[in-house]
Amino acid sequence: MERKAVVLLSGGLDSTTTLATARSEGYECYALSFDYGQRHRRELQAAQQVAEALGAREHRVVRLDIAQFGGSALTADLEMPKGRELEEIGQGIPPTYVPARNTIFLAHGLAWAEVIEAFDIFIGANCIDYSGYPDCRPEYLRAFEYLANLATKAAVEGRGRFRIQAPMLTLSKEDIIRRALELGVDLALTWSCYDPTPDGKACGQCDSCILRRSGFEQVGIADPIPYAR
After folding, report:
1. HSE-up of 26 (CA within 13 Å, CB side)?
2. Full pLDDT tens readout for the chain, 229 residues
3. Which domains does the chain show, CATH number per domain?
4. 76: which of 63, 122, 154, 181 is 20 to 30 A away, CA to CA?
5. Which of 8, 3, 48 is nearest to 191 (CA)?
């Protein structure tokens, strides 16, 4: 009998490779994406294509309105950081941080996991090549796992113990790309850009594009998605 897992899937490199990893470990995967008012909704198209290509048992898109609270360059009319050096990207918490995003996403993942009795929840969080997000840290994920086992009927009744799995957590972007290639992932399906152009190209200048392009350069292969510059 296959183990079930809920996999948070944005359609980016990290979450896509996380889904591929979960599948390679024998999990029956239930992919979960979020339409939360993000300016880069293009990622949802990528998530759908990735879920289909990697054989997710089911893929759901939950619609939330986090944008009503603002507070992020991804959901409000705030300036998007562009053209930063890699050293700058890891310093401080940037305006692309979305308040409580991973907490909100993981809570929804936990709800679905409890219903379908999937005690593993996968997230593509990364604390190496990341933009200073506090909800991508190992201590945060451990704290949420503790909460999940404290606050659910399934755990309290002893039917299982929830685990938050973040297999990309300590990998560099280069290592993530290499793992994706080893797992046969079609990286042309993935999407990372925070600020896509009207004609559907990646901007090439936001923090996410810079981290992605750096990873491909280190691997020594061309990034298969189109860039504006």
Report:
1. 3
2. 679 999 999 999 999 999 999 999 999 999 999 999 898 889 999 999 999 999 999 999 999 999 899 999 888 888 888 989 887 887 888 889 999 999 999 999 999 999 999 999 999 999 876 667 899 999 999 999 999 999 999 999 999 999 999 999 999 999 999 999 999 999 999 999 999 998 989 999 999 999 999 999 999 999 999 999 7
3. 3-219 (3.40.50.620)
4. 122
5. 48
